[in-house]
Amino acid sequence: xxxxxRYIAFEFxxxxxxxxxxxxINHVLHARKxxxxxxxxxxxxYDTDSRRGLLRCGHKQxxxxxxxxxxxxKIGGKEASFVILGVSGTVKAAKxxxxxxx
Length: 102
What we know:
single chain, Alpha-Beta Plaits
């Protein structure tokens, strides 16, 4: 049976690359010893201009991943924070609902 995925749409407040954001989220999850399937966790999309992106995770880990994202206060010594825009079951719907230009 195929594993269910969820896509967390977010807006990043701060300055960091896609790689730094991905590392910070993974680091917080590991430090907190949260039970998250690392094979499902992936930063699918991140637009540096709008500072919005999509993070994929398992459907049972959404709350843990969101909590980890919201707990991040610094990345690379610089102030950083996340605003969760919403959660969707597909990339297409997430883009349409949360990442479309205003």
